[in-house]
């Protein structure tokens, strides 16, 4: 199997199952990796990985620094362009780790990132690849505004933010210079979203779903060509004659969904 290029593991394995994958150095794709059934150190040997999906428990604390040296990179491939971390059931495992940022330390080429987990704070922007263009975040218990970190990613074009627990978000001037599509979904506590003039100059599409306490769009959104909103509150305020219609009157394509809700 040393010539294997693509490996798709099952979603679940028996608890006693332990897979040694360290000899699969030519792997390009690895899906459903977890630290319950696999060895974390084997990722270092996979120096050709292009796509990695972690599904299930992922415990960075069991990384053996005594055996591998001090602060080694967790992912050994410099060619990785897509990373997914999906922790629905065991999501507390990754949030407790103080070395979470190290997971990205060697991922200098990553373009697409998906995280579904219980994380209270994003890694520092310097830990994230400057090549990131597509990000989806579903972060349980995240109360700190993620925008000051994400807006510094100069090549980010698509951002989907789900399950942010905070009440306020702020996008500063010159932030998100290349962002074209932004989706906010399930931000149940979000009440206020401020956007400085000059932020998100390339934004063309904005979607807002299930953000029930957010009543107003920011003043700074001037370049949107497609606006997709859910709820009757937005419809009443943004349709012609509404108090916030002036903010979106330039938008050629406005879509309202489920206008019978809130």
Characterize this entry briefly.
It comes from Gossypium hirsutum. This is Probable disease resistance protein RF9. With 262 residues, the chain is mainly beta.
C-alpha-based Rg, rounded: 21 Å
Tell me the β content: 25-35%
Largest sheet: 11 strands, parallel
N to C succession of SSEs: EEHEHEHEEHEEEEEEHHE
Counting H and I runs of at least 4 residues, what is the number of helices? 6
Shape: elongated
Helix content: 10-25%
Organism: Gossypium hirsutum
Keywords: Repeat
Protein name: Probable disease resistance protein RF9
InterPro entries: LRR_dom_sf, LRR_R13L4/SHOC2-like
Key phrases:
262 residues; 6 helices; two-stranded parallel sheet; mainly beta; 11-stranded parallel β-sheet
